[in-house]
Specification:
The chain is mostly helical. It is built from five helices and no strands. The longest helix has 21 residues. The protein is globular, with a radius of gyration of 15 Å.
Length: 106
């Protein structure tokens, strides 16, 4: 029962505040920027560590969303990781969450 409670806490969706949205977008932009700068150098595992950190930061700030998983997988593909996938995905998740929060119930 405790593991279900822990999983529920990890998958919670926090209320989107302006600060959370700005911090999540900043984390995504920084992750994409650092990967773009380090990309040609071919540092072993640096890109993967950045991706894990970006996934954890963005998920912690705006909550987990299924759109984050394809972005995480795309970042593992060479040459595709040069695209700003974290920034685009984070912006898409924020837009979807904002739309859901502003829709009237029913």
């Amino acid at each position: 029962m405790k593991s279900l409670e822990k999983a529920g806490r990890l998958l919670r969706v926090p209320k989107l505040t302006r600060a959370r949205m700005i911090l999540a977008l900043a984390a995504a932009v920084v992750a994409d920027g650092v990967q773009l700068l380090l990309g040609p150098l071919g540092w072993a595992f640096a890109d993967q560590l950045i991706d894990v950190a970006a996934m954890l930061l963005v998920s912690g700030l705006i909550g987990f969303h299924w759109l984050l998983l394809p972005s995480f997988v795309l970042e593992l593909i060479p040459a595709v990781d040069e695209l700003p996938t974290w920034t685009a995905c984070t912006a898409a998740v924020i837009a979807l969450r904002r739309r859901r929060e502003t829709m009237p119930p029913g």
